UniProtKB/TrEMBL annotation:
Pathway: One-carbon metabolism; tetrahydrofolate interconversion. Residues 6-120 form the Tetrahydrofolate dehydrogenase/cyclohydrolase catalytic domain. GO terms for molecular function: methenyltetrahydrofolate cyclohydrolase activity; methylenetetrahydrofolate dehydrogenase (NADP+) activity. InterPro entries: Aminoacid_DH-like_N_sf, NAD(P)-bd_dom_sf, THF_DH/CycHdrlase, THF_DH/CycHdrlase_cat_dom, THF_DH/CycHdrlase_CS, THF_DH/CycHdrlase_NAD-bd_dom. Its EC number is 1.5.1.5, 3.5.4.9. GO terms for cellular component: cytosol. This is Bifunctional protein FolD. The lineage of its organism: Bacteria, Bacillati, Bacillota, Bacilli, Bacillales. Residues 139-281 form the Tetrahydrofolate dehydrogenase/cyclohydrolase NAD(P)-binding domain. GO terms for biological process: L-histidine biosynthetic process; methionine biosynthetic process; purine nucleotide biosynthetic process; tetrahydrofolate interconversion. NADP(+) binds at G165, R166, S167, V231. Belongs to the tetrahydrofolate dehydrogenase/cyclohydrolase family. Keywords: Amino-acid biosynthesis, Histidine biosynthesis, Hydrolase, Methionine biosynthesis, Multifunctional enzyme, NADP, One-carbon metabolism, Oxidoreductase, Purine biosynthesis. The gene is folD.
Amino acid sequence: MAATILQGKEVAQSIRTELATEVADLKKQGIIPGLTVVLVGDDPASHSYVRGKSKGCEEVGIRSELILKDASTTEEELLSIIQGLNENPNVNGILVQLPLPAHISESAVIEAIHPEKDVDGFHPISVGNMVLGNETMLPCTPHGIIELIKRTGTEIAGKHAVVIGRSNIVGKPVSLLLQQENATVTMCHSRTQNLEEHTRRADILVVATGKAHMIGKEHVKPGAVVIDVGVNRIETGKLVGDVKFDEVQEVASFLTPVPGGVGPMTITMLLKNTVSAAKKQAKR
Ligand code: NDP
């Protein structure tokens, strides 16, 4: 039977509707959640992501601000902008769009953001709290993936989840969150031998490699939930995932499309983190 297509766009929309109600209630209490996005340079993909984030904010009623700086901006200047935002009570969330130009240290910039305003969940304190299982700002893509899997009605506890990819922003955190949801997790990467042997045992397969179409139906256990995180632009200009959609659709029970799967969830989780940050900061 063909897989049910997991329309992240629709799930994201329903979460945004819930968030819009929450933001309207907060506004009645005088709390206006605010997100500031800082974009350095003119990478077209980054500009497009940032537009999506501003649009999302507008949709749910979050006040958003975009600070655009040219590629020659120094690390010192950027750190001083972040310092100003850390001190600004109207700014609840700060996001510096990555990647940054090569002369700026990404880790220095991430570490400069106050952890309470770290809506990307990349600060070492946020990551440490996530590892410890403490309440914290979860990174948006992994958090979005867990929400998507839950909304399929799949019970994660006790399932065998296989994650391909071990990056700090997707593979590692999603593996950890799946384990915290009581899945038994296998992590695969470019040095994994006999990849197919691992992936064929997965009840839940999360693919985050950035290698277009590397996963075919031979990798997938019939009935598995398959989450395709990859976003790859192929020669034709088309955006495709890491999974061969047409053939995996024949064997999986649920499958995310690219685009329209994980991507919209990522932005929605950013909005959710901004609202949580505003609520937390209002209590102080
Ligand atoms: P990275 O390049 O940082 O990591 C890729 C991972 O895949 C690495 O751990 C690498 O292994 C592993 N890998 C690469 N090739 C293979 C292979 N042939 N077999 C097994 N493992 C392999 O990528 P990201 O995690 O940042 O992103 C992954 C994809 O997800 C990209 O396409 C990116 O655009 C997309 N993405 C989408 C988001 C969304 O919101 N939709 C958000 C973030 C990312 P090793 O560690 O050994 O090198």
